[in-house]
Amino acid sequence: MLKEERHRVIINEVELHNRILLSDIAEQIGVSMDTIRRDVKELDADKQLKKVHGGAIALGFTNYATENKNIYALEDKIKIATKALSLINTGNTILIHGGTTCLELAKLIPNKLEITCFTTSLAVALELLTKKGVDVFFIGGRLSKDSQISIGANAIHQLLDITFDYSFIGTGYVDINYGLTEFDLESVQVKKAIIKSSKKTVLLSISEKLNSKHRYKTCEINAINTMITELDPDDMLLENFRKQDIRLL
Amino acid sequence: MLKEERHRVIINEVELHNRILLSDIAEQIGVSMDTIRRDVKELDADKQLKKVHGGAIALGFTNYATENKNIYALEDKIKIATKALSLINTGNTILIHGGTTCLELAKLIPNKLEITCFTTSLAVALELLTKKGVDVFFIGGRLSKDSQISIGANAIHQLLDITFDYSFIGTGYVDINYGLTEFDLESVQVKKAIIKSSKKTVLLSISEKLNSKHRYKTCEINAINTMITELDPDDMLLENFRKQDIRLL
DNA sequence: AAAATAATTGCAAAAAACTGCAAAGACAAA
DNA sequence: TTTGTCTTTGCAGTTTTTTGCAATTATTTT
């Protein structure tokens, strides 16, 4: 087998599985490990993949990539939170749910903006307490050890007694067909209650989460009134969402 | 499994749960703790997460809220909290109110003690969330800006729906004749509700507060079942209280 | 203060990478 | 076809990296 052919096979495998073991490929193609090692070295130099000890991984699967992604993600989240903030007016009664993007929103709220703000998140509550103008209410309930947010029947019950001008929520996954979905069922139940109690529900989601889904459904995409991503509302990636009855920001 | 793959798994878990235990990850991936420890060390050096004793936490997940800012009389408070802890048994449903002494109690609760614990204090809640065996519930309500505890009708309403085996409260002032008093009316109202909902109410108070009083009354001294100070129950200073129908500890 | 957990260190076995080399193969010019 | 040159490949020996274990030390918990 020619070198070029082997290279093609290797790249194929990497793209298919995101990672390969040199030993697997050597056996599969039927050449020595040394040869494959040299092939992978070349492909690495050509920036076709990243060579690691024992194998190779697809570009974009490296930790450098995730590191950069996270740095950008924070900027994106601030961008999203800034747009969300523009919706809030003096005198509003709002709810801010948990999650890193929602926490950014809480951080961005100006000291003197006079609003009433409910939250289910300990972190958001602590942040809001530093804002002079904000009247802070915590929705009690069982606290999730992981996310430090209120869940359970108690929280839901309280939520349903209140009407929010706006509620700001994140989600684990969004998909145009599957709607908002989560990894965790209890989280879903709380979010359902939030949506029910809100005049307008605003979804804060980085574009990375678009077109992904998981086990438990919070709601259809149309149950959301406004969706905010870090992208421009005219962005190609949002094309499908523009056809829906939601406001993009 | 390639090292890079393990790294990805670890980062994923940290992002999902905010914190991980090395032992959990080691078991999940099926390698020794040493290997995971080395992985986490590298990821920490890469600023992908923060390594802590026994595990790792997501960047930006540190708690300043429960740090001891007020080390005044800390020794005494720990002594009080230790005595209070001795009252709690497996399976109990208790309430821990706010204040530095109550926070000490929360800190002292052993990891594996299995109890259900309610609280009105953000700091106490955050502390309790670190305890494996504790089911944590937060009593929602309006949050006081300075004390970071729930107050208001909402909190009171929730409290009255529950029965606690023990509730642990502090007070601004105690006097044998005037009972428990406070500077703040809303705090009094919440404490009244707590006392009403508790089979046994335990007062945690440093002796310095004895024989002092203020404007708003929570209850008579007899409404308290147990009073804990840093002093020996036989101490002269507690002579008056011994004549009352309260247990001293 | 004692017990339980976790971190560190040094070490050894295993796996992988590197090095130099020689045989095999590719290819152009004679 | 043959020859000479250059590249590719596999092999053997050496070095490096990874990993798990055991003994020690440090930290946390009770």
UniProtKB/TrEMBL annotation, chains A, B:
UniProt KW keywords: DNA-binding, Transcription, Transcription regulation
Gene3D superfamilies attached to this UniProt entry: 3.40.50.1360, Winged helix-like DNA-binding domain superfamily/Winged helix DNA-binding domain
Statement: the UniProt record of this protein carries the keyword Transcription: yes
Sequence ranges assigned to domain HTH deoR-type in this UniProt record: 3-58
Any Pfam family the entry gives: HTH_DeoR
Recorded superkingdom: Bacteria
GO MF entry, a single one: DNA binding
Keyword Transcription (UniProt): yes
Protein name: Transcriptional regulator, DeoR family
The organism of origin for this protein: Cellulophaga tyrosinoxydans
